[in-house]
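_Per-residue structure_
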Amino acid sequence: MGRLYTGCMDTMVLKGCYHGASGATMGLTALSTWYFNYPSAITTHKDSLKYCAPQGKMGPYFAESIMGVNGIVQFPKGYIKGAAEAVRARGGVVIMDEVQTGFGRTGDNFWGFQGHDVVPDIAVMAKGIANGFPMAAVVTTKEIASVMDSAIHFNTFGGNPVGCAMASTVLDVIEDEKLQENARELGSYYLMGLAKLRDQYEIVGDVRGKGFMMGIELVTDKDSKTALPKEQTLDILDDLKNMRLLCGKGGVAGNILRIQPPLVTTKADVDYALGCFDLAFANHRDRQSKQETQFGEERKAHASM
């Protein structure tokens, strides 16, 4: 729709973004770990609005309200709004990806783009829309959607009545059980707990996020901020899994623990999770200390030979 409406194939995305891994969307994703070896990024430009001259024409501009797969990356204040203005000045359309940030997850707003004081031309959403049932939606204006009249188009599963009923019910539950407020209040509590762990452990270089969308950056040390090696990150994830806490990872180096709990998470759940992180980080510290001691003993033995 964005390309048809603007009449321009040139699409802009950001480095580190994730917008899907299908044949159609892989070209919009700027993380090499999600690429298959075939051309998928034709007329897609990554990282800079400078590609288009001030008077130049451009098509769609995609952005996440908070980068999810890239490690819960938040934008500088005013960036998304300024980018949207620049895109529209060049005849483009702004498409916000709310798959991870939508449906109250950020706490302060129901949609992530509201936190940027921007109303997109098109918004895409899924996952939280029907609580796990396969459902997604594209929302736009009648004017933009009308370009689809230029050819016959249909979706075999589009408008599935069961999916629509589930999505409608989920919206009611979010409102009735005040789950957006839960994400805001417990999200702040969660981040405060993670901040204490950051101060306690050398491997925690940063904690960040908003509502129930948080990230823990794992590093070798706080001074260099060098990404924790992949094997060590996986060991920590295994420890968490053995404690029955599932956690994702992200970022270019794969060293960001991604925390996006269910909106129905309770304070007891958060306390349990914080305890799991505490123990997993302590286990890592003990493993490293043991390895360093063993390495020192081997060096001494070698020197005495």
In short: DSSP finds seven helices and ten strands in the chain. The domain at 2-176 is CATH 3.40.640.10 (Aspartate Aminotransferase; domain 2).
